[in-house]
Amino acid sequence: MTDVLRRGRGSLAFSFLVQGVAFALLVTRIPAIQDRYGVSDALLPVFLAAVPVLAGIGSVTTERLVKRVPPSRVLRWSQPVVLLALLGVGAGEHMAVLGVALAAFGLAVGGLDASMNMLGVSLQRAYGRSIMLGFHAAYSLGGIVGASLAWVGARGEPALWVSYLPVVVVLLPAALVGSRWYVDRGGSPRAEGAEGEGAGAGASTWLLPLCLVMTVAYIGDSTVSNWSAKYLQDVLGSSEQLATVPYNLYMVTTLLGRAVGDVGVRRFGAVAVVRAGALVAAVGFAVVAGAPGAWVGMLGFTLLGLGLCVLVPQTFAAAGRRAFESGSPGASDAAVARLNVFNYVGFLIGSPLVGALGDAWSYRGAMLVPMVLVLVTLVPARSFAARPDRYGGGHERSRAADVGRGSDGL
């Protein structure tokens, strides 16, 4: 293992952490943002929906961009834009400024998410063992840090820009310095003509099951982030203070699950880990739906964190691996960028779906819908396995490593 790869892994993990901080600082201060700009309840969903839509556009644009420039360069310059856009959200006074800042945030986040996961996939391939969950664990840790900083800022009730400025001043230069050690293609030279041809028309057959899993994972995630507090308070009769606990438990168990998940992938393989995660998440939704009180409901949300946490990192890893098996390094980047769009599709579907079902039927019943969707992912979970027919015996080690079960104890 070279120092280049170790530094690349550390710098990329820091980039994931910074993104977790930035995103948490935005979403946890939405009420304060609404008050600052006087955004009505009717207009707020439009602003919130615009961010994932523009992020999807940014992800698609990144797919085309990385045909000409390395993903590391996209990540190097999109992360500062995200941080500056966050500061712009806090510093503006007119609604037009909010619109421009959120648009910049959304577009940059799309490029950031896509390029980060491209680099993660290529580094995992270079390492020869599963490390993808570790990057997403850094993101979860960043989310916890960001939410904690937002809580501190909200307590003192300073202006939004006062809360955001110290974070941006510290993280922006640190991210730029860390970007010096990003590693493209696992340290190998950029392939000539790597235009992502393996992720073209032929990719539609094998990429679709992974897109389904990604969408379902984010439907589950957005259900927890948007409805856990309301569910505990309105359905299970908890206090307002106790209603804030489930999301924190979810974030902590997501971090813990991702921190140890790579070990499980190396030992049992990606398919087994994904199926186990889906089953645990389904049990979590069932517990939430049938909970007689708040404490049992919190147990359900805890199980959701442990179950859902493995799905997204392993979906990115599987897309990159399957595309790489097509023989084109560029195909891996294209597949990751296209798959990343379904991150935002799931986010857009999840919250309105549960809200509509809760109003029309019941919130307990609404929790059963993502449970069923998670169970459906047990079928496409076989797409997370490498295709052994692609190689002869001489490639056994590399194939096992791509699955996350490297030889020689890796």
UniProtKB/TrEMBL annotation:
Compartments reported by the entry: Membrane
CDD domains: MFS_MosC_like
GO cellular component, one term: membrane
Keyword Membrane applies: yes
Residue numbers spanned by region Disordered: 390-410
Transmembrane domains' residue ranges: 12-30, 42-60, 81-110, 130-152, 159-183, 203-220, 268-289, 295-320, 341-361, 367-385
Keywords: Membrane, Transmembrane, Transmembrane helix
Topology of this chain in the membrane: Multi-pass membrane protein
Keyword field contains Oxidoreductase: no
Cross-referenced InterPro entries: MFS, MFS_trans_sf, MFS_Transporter
Comp. bias (Basic and acidic residues): 390-402
Chief place of localization: membrane
Any one GO molecular function term: transmembrane transporter activity
The protein, known as: MFS family permease
